[in-house]
Amino acid sequence: MIDSIPIAVEFTRIQSKTHRDSPVASGGLELLFSNQRKHQVALPASNPEGTPSTVGYLVKWLCENLIKDPRKEMFVLDDSVRPGILVLINDADWELEGEEKYELQANDEIVFVSTLHGG
Amino acid sequence: MPHYPCQTCHISRAQILRPSTGTRLCAPCFTLAFETETAATITSSSLFHPGERIAIGASGGKDSTVLASVLQTLNTRYNWGLELVLLSIDEGIAGYRDHSLEAVKRNAEVLGLPLKILGYEELYGWSMDAVVAQVGRKGNCTYCGVFRRQALDRGAAVLGVRHVVTGHNADDVAETVVMNLLRGDLARLGRGTSLVTGTGGAEGGFASVKRSKPLMWAYEKEIVMYAHHKRLDYFSTECIYSPEAFRGSARTLIKNLERIRPESILDVVRSGIDMARLVPGAGGEGGSGSLRVEAIPRDAEDDTGGGCSGDNGEDAGGEMARVEETLRLNERAEEEGTETEIRLPAKAVNGQRHDRDGLHTGPPAAALPATVNGQNHDRHTHIPDIAVVPIRTKQEKKSGRKTAGDNLPPRQRLGQCERCGYLSSQAVCKACMLLEGLNKARPRTGIEVGGAGG
Ligand SMILES: [Zn+2]
Ligand SMILES: [Zn+2]
């Protein structure tokens, strides 16, 4: 029972119809993730405790499985998403969806947007 | 998980939780509210006049990209008749601005706005690469930072534009408030929180260019959300690994405060304005409830935002020197017997070890009332959705203006640079000093673009 659910994860600062999928880096969070903005991940369907997988678990899982860069603290701080990084669950503010506790569904889209400076 | 409905249209699914009010809105209702509030900031302070030519300081980053998009939208929607132009500064570091200038070019095209890119080479006679060739890698950040502070003004003057707008947001202003408090720099506190600043230079020269920040009441979070939902195209010019140390800690503090209670950011901004009001001559006009907005002076060392690589900011190297300079000035004030104590509400500094250390040498100011507005912890009640523009009411009238006036503290005396006319606490401003050094050392080639005002 190695059930997994497909989740689309995106790390970004750049959003545009024409340049969304271009290889041009946006100078953002994706630097931590092999400089790749969009990832399709197969997340275990349940948390280690046996409950359905949450966004909180996804964040932890990303740190353990996807971040190639040692500077994980740019993404997480004290085990939660670093303040200043916005999280969107299916294009809505994660604060409206229960934040870390949101239970992921197949094909959910999770976007992490850094709000760091840059005029 | 049930979705919340939008609290404005009551139809669509809510996508944004507004930090200022806790209101839940769908993306279209949110973008409209954001635009309407920016319009309110502008009209309530008569920031622009019809037909005015405005240069938008454009770095290709999120803030200036959103500013350009919103201004263009409002200008069309309300028929303001503004003549908008995008102004970008290229430091002249090979490769460094490539991505961000590409983003600016795309935006100029999408928005249908003219774009002017000016290099340090054109503005100062020295590109950063040439500076590095001359002075070496060490210390070149100082040059870059000092030149950057005047670059937009000089660029605007080249275009014959008298007013530059920048994308500074509420988070930036709050950071600046915290930094200026820690530095004990009350004069700059006023300039950092002011909607409009000017340099008071001679009419016509670059030193008289007015600057303003129409997004100073907008949360960074909302700016990013606006850019996201409007599918704006931007690039980040700051390396995420090297935020300037001092601003970095102020920033972390602000972001942590926001996590606990999002309203904190505007509360810090309002507090900064209130404190600045207690400093005679330092201004601190927020442009909110008042009828007129005076451009308060800005000097050559002023600015907010950005690290070394930011588009409008501080130099990393000069920061400590500046703190020391301020402390020295404060010491002098103390000797002259005009020092009074700053008392911050204990709550506000709770648990922040360095706050107290930073403040005990604070410069002259009146004691602050123990309560700062916005103590209301119920995020759902206290500000109506549309009226984000903070209104200062009774408190303002009651506040201790009189005391402040009686007790004139010496502040940094702002004269004008004798070379370029830019407001400066020294006879010759930093930029002119650095230029002099560079030009002296350069083998004579004839052309010299110096600090001559223009
Ligand atoms: Zn709506
Ligand atoms: Zn000068």
UniProtKB/TrEMBL annotation, chain A:
This is Ubiquitin-related modifier 1. The lineage of its organism: Eukaryota, Fungi, Dikarya, Ascomycota, Pezizomycotina. SUPFAM superfamilies: MoaD/ThiS. C-terminal thiocarboxylation occurs in 2 steps, it is first acyl-adenylated (-COAMP) via the hesA/moeB/thiF part of UBA4, then thiocarboxylated (-COSH) via the rhodanese domain of UBA4. The keyword Methyltransferase does not apply. InterPro entries: Beta-grasp_dom_sf (IPR012675), Mopterin_synth/thiamin_S_b (IPR016155), Urm1 (IPR015221). There is a cross-link at G119 (Glycyl lysine isopeptide (Gly-Lys) (interchain with K-? in acceptor proteins)). Pathway: tRNA modification; 5-methoxycarbonylmethyl-2-thiouridine-tRNA biosynthesis. The keyword tRNA processing applies. The modification 1-thioglycine is found at G119. Keywords: Cytoplasm, Isopeptide bond, tRNA processing, Ubl conjugation pathway. Acts as a sulfur carrier required for 2-thiolation of mcm(5)S(2)U at tRNA wobble positions of cytosolic tRNA(Lys), tRNA(Glu) and tRNA(Gln). Serves as sulfur donor in tRNA 2-thiolation reaction by being thiocarboxylated (-COSH) at its C-terminus by the MOCS3 homolog UBA4. The sulfur is then transferred to tRNA to form 2-thiolation of mcm(5)S(2)U. Prior mcm(5) tRNA modification by the elongator complex is required for 2-thiolation. Also acts as a ubiquitin-like protein (UBL) that is covalently conjugated via an isopeptide bond to lysine residues of target proteins such as AHP1. It comes from Rachicladosporium monterosium. Belongs to the URM1 family. Its main location: cytoplasm. It is found in: Cytoplasm. Gene3D superfamilies: 3.10.20.30.
UniProtKB/TrEMBL annotation, chain B:
HAMAP family: CTU1. InterPro entries: CTU1-like_ATP-bd, CTU1_C, Ncs6/Tuc1/Ctu1, Rossmann-like_a/b/a_fold, TilS/TtcA_N. Pfam families: ATP_bind_3 (PF01171), zn-ribbon_14 (PF16503). Residues 54-238 form the tRNA(Ile)-lysidine/2-thiocytidine synthase N-terminal domain. CDD domains: CTU1-like. Residues 321-332 have a biased composition (Basic and acidic residues). Plays a central role in 2-thiolation of mcm(5)S(2)U at tRNA wobble positions of tRNA(Lys), tRNA(Glu) and tRNA(Gln). Directly binds tRNAs and probably acts by catalyzing adenylation of tRNAs, an intermediate required for 2-thiolation. It is unclear whether it acts as a sulfurtransferase that transfers sulfur from thiocarboxylated URM1 onto the uridine of tRNAs at wobble position. Prior mcm(5) tRNA modification by the elongator complex is required for 2-thiolation. May also be involved in protein urmylation. Its EC number is 2.7.7.-. It is found in: Cytoplasm. It comes from Rachicladosporium monterosium. The keyword Zinc-finger does not apply. Belongs to the TtcA family. CTU1/NCS6/ATPBD3 subfamily. This is Cytoplasmic tRNA 2-thiolation protein 1. Keywords: Cytoplasm, RNA-binding, Transferase, tRNA processing, tRNA-binding. It is an enzyme of class 2 (transferase).
